[in-house]
Design brief:
Elements: E1 29-33, H1 43-51, H2 64-74, E2 79-84, H3 86-97, E3 102-108, E4 128-131, H4 141-151, E5 155-158, H5 175-180
Helix pairs in contact: 2-3
């Protein structure tokens, strides 16, 4: 586990074009998966809409199974998933079930403490960046991190001094760098 590096705390600039990453048609699909009581138009979704409009932000409702079925309808191969809270649970569950269809995961306080979640028998090798606040009481790091470590072989963890919603951290992450990896 690492504390939040100072270089990840810089404010992202508005970057509606993808000049550094080439034409949008050549970029992998990126989906933002919102939390249980949120939507693609929540705070994080609006941030991505403004700064990274190529990120898809569909809305999900219903059970985890219903949400995963909808995600499967939307996704093809070779996508990156950014999941926040319940959306992080969705992203992890989708990647475990379809490791060949996911290139990379970014999990923001993922709900891996959900009663129905079980790590796979074999860790998946998909690169995964997990960011969880040390003061998160909804998805406590002491419960979530062991589940993530049991799930992902290629896991990077950042644990800033923050809460479940990552109020102090989210907007200050170096998203341009994070998304270009």
């Amino acid at each position: 586990m690492n504390d939040m590096p100072k270089d990840c705390r810089k404010k992202v600039q508005n970057s509606p074009t993808d000049a550094n990453n080439g034409p949008r048609s050549l970029m992998p699909k990126i989906f933002f998966l919102h939390g249980l009581d949120s939507s693609g138009q929540g705070t994080k979704g609006r941030f991505f809409e403004k700064h990274f409009p190529h990120i898809r932000r569909p809305d999900f409702s219903g059970t985890l199974e219903n949400r995963l079925r909808r995600l499967e309808e939307l996704c093809g191969n070779e996508q990156n998933l950014i999941g926040s809270s319940f959306g992080g649970l969705m992203a992890a569950s989708y990647a475990v079930a379809r490791p060949g269809q996911v290139d990379r995961l970014i999990l923001l306080a993922p709900a891996l403490n959900f009663a129905e979640y079980r790590p796979p028998a074999r860790k998946v090798s998909i690169p995964c960046l997990l960011i969880i606040g040390r003061n998160d009481t909804v998805t406590p790091p002491d419960v979530v991190l062991p589940m993530a470590e049991a799930t992902f072989h290629n896991l990077e963890v950042l644990t800033p001094d923050d809460d479940h919603l990552l109020h102090k951290t989210f907007m200050n992450l170096e998203w341009g760098d994070i998304l270009s990896v």
